[in-house]
User: Fold these one by one.
Assistant:
Number 1:
Amino acid sequence: MHPWRLLSIPLLVGLFVALPVYWAYPDDLSFWRAAGIVLGWVGSGLLLASLLLMLREVRLASWLGGIERMTCWHHWTGLAGYLLLLMHPLALAAAAWTESPPLAWQLLSPVAQNWPVWVAWAALIFLMGGLITTFASRLRYPLWRWLHGLLGIGVLVGFVHVLLLGIDAGTVFAILAALLMLVWRLIRVDAGAAAKPYVVRSVRRVAETMVEITLAPLVRGMPAEAGQFVLVAFFRGPRYRGCGEYHPFTISAIDRDQQFRIGVKALGDCTRRMQALEPGVEARVQGPFGDFLLERPAKPQLWVAGGIGITPFLACLRNARVEHATRLLYLYRSEADAAFRDELETLAATHTGFSLEARATGDAIPDLAAILPGADELTGHECYLCGPPGLLDAVGHVLQSRGVPAAQIHCERFDFR
Amino acid sequence: MTRKLFIYSTLVFWIMVAGFGMTQVFWAPDDAGVVQARETIITPAELAGHATPEDCWMAIRGVVHDVSAYLPEHPSRPDIVLPWCGKESTEAYETKMKGRPHTPYADELLAKYRIGMLGKAP
C-alpha cells in the first residue's frame, strides 16, 4: 500500500482530534478540570472521525486504503472516543472533589435540575446502548444495524450537551458535520442512493449452499476489476422477494457488456434467501471497492482460500493467466461445499505455473502446520488469504512463524459489522 | 479484546460514579476548607465599582460574591455572565436555562466566593 494511503487515516483522525482541542484548550485551570475538558473534546473528535469512516464512497475508500481498513479504524476510533468520554465526567468530578468531596457528586448527579447534565447522561446511555448491541454478534443483522444507529444519536445528543453549556461556535459546526455524515450514510449507503440498477441475468448453483449470480447493468455499468468486491441488494422478481439489504460480495468473473458474476454463500437469513434468486430480479450495486490481488509484485505467490473466499482468486484466474509461480490452497468443509473445484482443476491443468491443492477440512480449523508449505518453500513468497476471519488469523500466525514478514501477508476478511 | 475493553471500562465507570454518589451519603460535612464570609456590609455603589472581568462582584440572594477568580471556569459564554458583574444578579442566577435555577453544585461553589452582605443604598 502506498505510504500516503497508510498515513491517510491516522492523519485524518489526528486532524479531527487536534482541531477541537486547539480551539477549546483551557488556560489557567486546575489539572483535573483541564483534563476533563480535553478528554471531552478528544473523545468528541474521535467519534466524529468514526462517523466519517463509516461512509462507503468509492473514491473516499480508495484514498483511505479500502473499506476493510476504514471499518477497522471506525471500530477503534469509536471505542477510544467512548472510553475518553467516560473519563470526561470523572475527571471533572475529580476537579470538584479537590474543592469539596460532596461537590463531585453534585456535578455528576443525574437527579440535579440541570439540562446540560441530563443531556450528557442521555448521550452516554445512547453510546452505551449502541455499543452493547454492537458487540452482540448474535443479533440478526437488520436489528443489529438499526440498534447500532443509537451510537449516531449518542454523538448528536453529546454535542447538544456542549451546546447547552453555552459553547456554541465550534459545536454548531460539529453538529452539522455529524448530521451531514449520518444523513450521507443513511441516504447514499443504507437507502442505496449511491447504487446503480442491475438485473439478475442468470443463477447457477455451484455448491450445496452457494450460487453464482450474473448481474447485468440496466444503465451504464461500473468499471470493476477481477477480485474487487461490491455491495449488492436484491429486491423483487417474478416470484422472488429480496430482503433489500446491502451485503458485500466478491466479483468472481467479469463478462462482456459490463456484466459480472458474484458468488453468494448461505451464511445468514438474507444470503439464505438469495439461494432462491431467479433471472429478472432487480438488484442495486455499490462499488467497486478493494484492491486485493490488483497490484501484485513480481514474486512467487501462495494463495489460501477458505470456502466462499475462493471467489477473488477464481476471478483473477478467469481474467488472465498467472504471471508468476502461484500455488492455491483451497480449503472447504465438505465435498458438497467444494464450489468451482472442477473449473479450478481445469485451470490448473492448462495454466503454466499455477498449481491447486483442494482439501475438505470438516468443521474445525485443520492442522495448518501440516498443510501449509514449509519455511524454505515460502522464501520470497507473497501470501494472499481470503476466507473466514478465524481461518485467516490461524493461517497468518503459521506463516509468520515460518518467517513470512507481515507486510507480505495480504488478507481479505469481509467483516464489516 | 474490544468487547472486554468495553465491558470492563463501563463497569469501572459505573463503580466510580457510584463511589462519588456514596460520598454524598457518607461524607461528614466539613466546612473547614470553605472560605468563611466576613459579614461586611457592601453597598450597591460599592458593588457597582466591581464590574469588570478582572474584578467582578455579584449580589445573589442578598449575598455579595467576588467571582473574579471563577469567571474563566464558568461554562457559559463570557457575554452571558459578564453583564451581571457589579449588579444584583439573583434573577439571572435563578433563571438559567429557560427558567431553571442553578444546581446545588453551583450553590455550594458560589458559597466559596462569598465576601459579604448587600446593604441598602445610603
Number 2:
Amino acid sequence: MRRERELAGRVLAAKRDQRLADDLVRDYLPFIKSETAKFLGRSPQQGRDDELGIAMFAFHEAVMAYDRARGAFIPLAATSIRNRLIDFARRERRHADVLSLDERRSTSDDEDERTIVETIASERDEIGERQTREASRREIAEFVARLSDFGLTLLDVSENCPKQERTLAACQRVLCHARQAPELLERLEKTGKLPVAELAAGSGVERKTIERHRRYLVAALLAFTNGFEIIRGHLRRIVPEGGGAR
Amino acid sequence: MTYLVMECHPAYALVLDERGSLTRVPNLGYEVGQTLRDVVVFDDEVLTFDAAPRKGRRTRLVALLAAACLCTAFVGGFALWQTPIGTVRMSINPEVEIDVNRFDRVVGLEGENDDGKELVEGFVYYGRTVDEVSDDLADRAEGQGYLDEGGRIEISVESDDEGWKTATEDRLVVELEVHLDHRVVVTRSDGASQGATPETPSAQGTTPTPAPEAAPPSDDGDDVDDDWDDDADDDGDDADDDGDGWVGNADDDWDDDSDDDDDDDWADDDDGDDDDDGGDDDDGDDDDD
C-alpha cells in the first residue's frame, strides 16, 4: 500500500518533469520488459526488438495519462503497454512481406550466418552522412538553447503542436506570412514576444488560433531565423519552393 | 515524408516532420540529428483513457439525479408526514383537537373553546405520539384544575380510515385510563367507554375500575353464566362439574380418567386389556409390562 502511494507520487512528479519521467522509465524497465515478454512469448532484447521501444513509449504515455483518482498506476501501465503492442503488431502486419535487413540468412555455401544488410554492397556515403548528422546535432542543440531563452522546451512545443489538419494549415499560413515579413521575425527575436495582432492581420488567420498555438509558432518562427539552415531545409513543405526565401 | 530527430529520451523521441509538426514517437534506437524515413505514429492519442471526461460527466449527472430523487423523497416524505390522517377530539371540559398523521404523530393541536386554548398554550406537541400528547394534556388539565377525581374525558376520533379510527379510539381510551390510574372515566363520544372490551354491555360501562375482561378461562365471577370461558357447561351454575378443577367442558379429560369411560386414551389405558406398553394403567391389575 505504501509502495503504491510512493509510486503514485513519483508518477505525478514525472508528469511535470521530463527528467523524472526518464528516470521512472529506466527504473521500471524490468517491469516493461516483463510485460513485453508476456506479449511476445519471449524476453525482448534491448536495441533489437522494436516492441521494447513501443512498450517503453506506452509506459510513458501511461505516466502522462495517470490520474490518482482513477486507481493504481501499474494496471494502467500494463493495459497501455498491451494495447500499444497490439497496435504495433497490426501496423507491422501490413509490412509483413517486407524483409528485414537485420534478418539472418544462411546460404548453402556460406557457413556463418550473416544478416542481409551485411551482404549488400553499401552505396551510401557513410562518412558524409555522419558529418551531416553531426552538423544537425549541433544545430539542434543551438535551437534548443534558443528555445530555452523563451522559456520553452521541445516537449512543450510538441504538446502545443496543432493536431488537426485544418489548424496545421492555418499555422502554416501564419508561418508563410511571417517568412515574407522579416521585420516580424526580428521583433520576435528582440522582444521575445509573438506579434499576434500583425500575424493575424497579415495571414487572415483568427487571432484565437494563433494565441492557442503560441508556443508552437514561436518555435517555428525561430527556426526561420538565421542560423538554422538544416532545420529550415527540413521544413521544405511549409514554404513553397523559392517563395520569398531569405 | 522524412523526420528529423530533435530530441531523444529513453521512452520517446521528438521528431520534426517536413510540414513543421513536432511529434512524440517511440524511440526505436534513434539519435539526435538522424533523419528517418518512417516512424511509428499511433493514430489515437491514448487508447484507454479518452473515455474519462464522459465518465466524469456521467458521474455528475448521476449525482444530480440522485440529489433530485433525494429532494423529491424528502419533500414527498414531508408532505406525507404533514398530512393528517385523522383528528382526535378530546374533551375534558377544555376541548382540544389533535391532528394526527399516518405515523401516529401529532402535527397539529388546537383549543376548541377558551379553556382548551388556555390548556394548549405553550404546550410542545409537534412530532410526538398521539398517546403521549393525550396523556400530557390530561395531566395538564388535572394540574390546572379542570379534571378532578371521578371526572370524565371524552374521546372522539374522526378519520376517513375506518380501521385507524377504531384502533386509535380504543387505544387512546385504554391509554388514558391506565395513565390516570383509573381515577377518571374515559369515554368515547358515542357514549361507550373502555373500548378495550366492546362485548361488555354498555350498562356496565361506567364502572370506574374496569376488570380485565379478556382473562383466561376461570370462574369469571359473574352471575349470568354467559360462558365466555367454556363451551359445554351451560347448566346454569359455575360448579366444577366433574371435580377436576376445570370449569365447564364435560369431556375435559386431558389429564385424568377417573369418571368417564370414553375412549380418549391420550395418556392412559382404561379398556382393561394388556396391550399398552406405556403410560399409566388404571385398571387395577398388574399385568401390564
